[in-house]
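# nightly structure sweep
# worker-07 picked up a monomer target from the shared queue
# config: single-sequence mode, recycle default, output format = structure tokens
# input follows
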Amino acid sequence: MLAQLIEFATNHYALAGCFAVLLVLLIVTELRKGGQSLSSRELTALVNSDQGVVLDVRNQKDFSAGHIVDAVNIPFDKLSSRMVELEKYKAKTIIVVDAMGQHAGAVARDLKKAGYTAAKLAGGISSWRGDNLPVVK
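# output follows
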């Protein structure tokens, strides 16, 4: 299989080169569109220094099953109609948390367009739990 791939790439170097360039561009675009990704440690430092607030965009059921202490819950599908609730956090960095990172980038981008300072927790709540950090119910 690998030998066939190498043979194809050498016989069709222009196609293989275009594929590699497009793949790199896709990765760069995906990484940039959601804004800054924070680790669990960086999130904790921002919140503890009162410079950040956690916005959990999971649905109410998942949020109730366990969330980061003092997190604000606005489900992803209701964010556009409830964004005004975040006005009081305009001076802080809003750190978006979801289940595994699938919606956080889009939410952070929308928040930035609305004038907020926003970042996302890399890997979502699953990475938080994976680091054995506490959640409350």
